[in-house]
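To the team - adenosine-5'-diphosphate complex, inputs and output below.
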Amino acid sequence: MLIIEGLTRRYNGRIAVDDVCLEVPRGSFVGVIGRSGAGKSTLLRMVNRLADPSAGRVLWDGRDVTRLRGRELRDWRGRCAMVFQGFNLSGRLDVLTNVLMGRLNHVSTPRALLRLWSAEDRAIALSALERFDIAELASQRAESLSGGQQQRVAIARALVQEPDIILADEPIASLDPRNTRIVMDALARINRDFGITVLCNLHALDIARGYCDRLVGLSAGRLVFDGPPGELDAEA
Ligand code: ADP
Ligand code: ADP
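Output:
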């Protein structure tokens, strides 16, 4: 269970996230919606500590992750996988190596750090690519793939990290409608098949309605809606 308590972030005195409280049971698929600048990205980034809160706490299974330092912080980040709008792949490296990078967060042995991947790591990475129908691209440079293919590589990288939570920040913002479906289906399958909690920032309300079992609405940093998609329709 993820608990967000009074989470607040200011940048140079301006409020970006304002006293947000949320309880997210394991296995939820939560869509965070709101206009550009509403604070969605800052909220997500405070969960894995890419940003630190000005006030408030983030608890995972009762432990305050906003206080973690050093090795404990690295372990926590390994349990949160990020999926970004811009994919964040190493473009000149091949697809399989990009997916294997996800194992770095999981297996921090010298072998992994030196990229001496084990046969098991390779098998896990390949099967993640197969799961998203891109195994035949394993030896291609990541930058040669389409946006939808690159985002599936990023999701495969997130999956092999064996995370508790996937934090997806506008994962479909640069994709066409067909690839939007393919990428959202991939996130939905990870959520369903592995029970991994997904927090997903989304611009597109129709997509959020169709995929998420709960929507959280932010406006000027404040939580203005929290409920199932059907409730939002009732209020509209
Ligand atoms: P969203 O993801 O909903 O578009 P953000 O979390 O990116 O919203 O931004 C919320 C507010 O915080 C905006 O006003 C934005 O300009 C500001 N902000 C976000 N990150 C930074 C930063 N690193 N430095 C200064 N201001 C920031
Ligand atoms: P190199 O050092 O060969 O340039 P890196 O290992 O630094 O490559 O990775 C390049 C990019 O991939 C960076 O943007 C990094 O943040 C990202 N990256 C690496 N490993 C992971 C991972 N496990 N999960 C998410 N992103 C990763």
